[in-house]
Amino acid sequence: MKEGKSTELVRKGTFLLVISVVIKLIGLLYRIPLTNMLGNQGNGIYGLPFQIYSFIITLATMGVSTAISRMVSERMARGEKANARLVFRIGIIYAAVIGILVHVVLFFGADFIAGTIFNDISAAPAIRVLAPVTMMVLFSSIIRGTYQAVGDVRPSAYADLLDQIFHAGLSILFVYLTVSAVSDINIEVGGRFPVLEQASQDAANGTKYGALSGLLFLLGIFFFYRRKSGIFNAPMQEATESWKSVLKIFVLTVFPIMFAATVSNLREIIDTALFNALMPMKGYTADVIQTQRGLVSGKFVVLTNMPIAALGTLGIMLVPGIAAAITKQDHDSIQVHIETLMKMVFMVSIPAAIGESVLGVPIINWLFSSQPGGGELLRVGSFIIVFYSVSQNAAAILQGLGKLKICVRNAFYGLCVSTPILILCVMVFDIKAYALIVSLLTFSFTMAFFNIRSVIKYSGCRINMVKMFTAPLVCSLIMGGVAYLSYAGLYALLHSNTIAILTSIVLAIGVYFILLLNSSFYTREQILELPYGRIFMKFRFKD
What gap in Å lies between CA 188 and CA 457, rounded to an integer? Predict the structure, then answer.
């Protein structure tokens, strides 16, 4: 039974990882022409409203799908379908009220947010464009959470994929139409850059229509399968819980998750605001500051977020399973969920971090050929991939265990440590964009440390973290050496950056997985239970 649960989790996790990698690959590919069209300064102008939008989205929506999936799964585990339907209804009302409120605040407060708080009024028009997106994301979150509660992650995954396709395609199209109509996108009028600001609005419109496409897809699935659903056909008169009690539980579930994620995103907002305020004190002009921000938001964050976001989806499948296991007092299931998740996190995040560190400079110069620079940041900061991946999935475990306030406390610890570090790096060491990277590393490491410690403490499970990350780390270090030597050799021989990078990446991935399959990370039986396990066994030379 224990192995069967592990196999099912691995299959769902593999599906989510594949879809997430495709989504993030689309996101990376669309940023290449976007960055080449806008430049580093344009990326900085575009990055600020998107950062503000991300913070507001997190504040309004984070925890909603988790709360719905957890509450519905608990009631379904007890056979209370009518109460599960009540949870869904309250979620819809919450989405409508909060969505309207946030839309009004963003639309009418855009000038104050951009001009007064961030001292960069160029972000205001794009913020207005993004104002209605919050409501779309909220409604999507309610539907996602309901499907996740019954163990079906496919609607969420396909909706995200559709969202990203429309987002990327329309953003590129809209920005291209704007920049191709002028001879110089860096025209300055009264201290502002109107073409770059318009392009930022265009990219924001792509985000808006992408979110709309994802919502319409989920609504179509919802109405098509509604009559077959046990939840939505349950008579409401059979509900044994009151609206008030369910709303109270919903709010008490959402708010701690929201606060924890808000602290994490607040760190980005604080970092940006401090960076904008402190850099002029060191003699840097606005265009230099925007360019430095653009290197981080348009290149470093884009590349590191790809594996982080992909691994973050694994927590989606975890929370309902742990909540149901707690309801049934199934401690073996809790242990399986935690071990399976953390092994997948280390298996993917460590080689991703080392790979981006080793090949960061050539990859950046290859992807952003007309706007080079920024690859050195990956050499320094790529291990945030490991720290953030561990942190966010450990937080998902804590949410499933019902320890929601612990996530908030640990995020606050990270904020308290990283903020003075940023000030020190800017004012004393004067390391420009590296200051933001060091702050990211400090925050993510602190969060990961305290979240993992809390998981071990509150789960009651015996989790050997050292054993989990030792094999991936050793295999990844060898892989990194292979990647570096193969790239250097091929580039010296062929003088082709493209061939050298692609060949070294493929070779490094192959070496890593062959080493891992022959390590102690997986037993022979565990490999056979993996998707395509018999194929993987052909590359295992021990046993």
Answer: 56
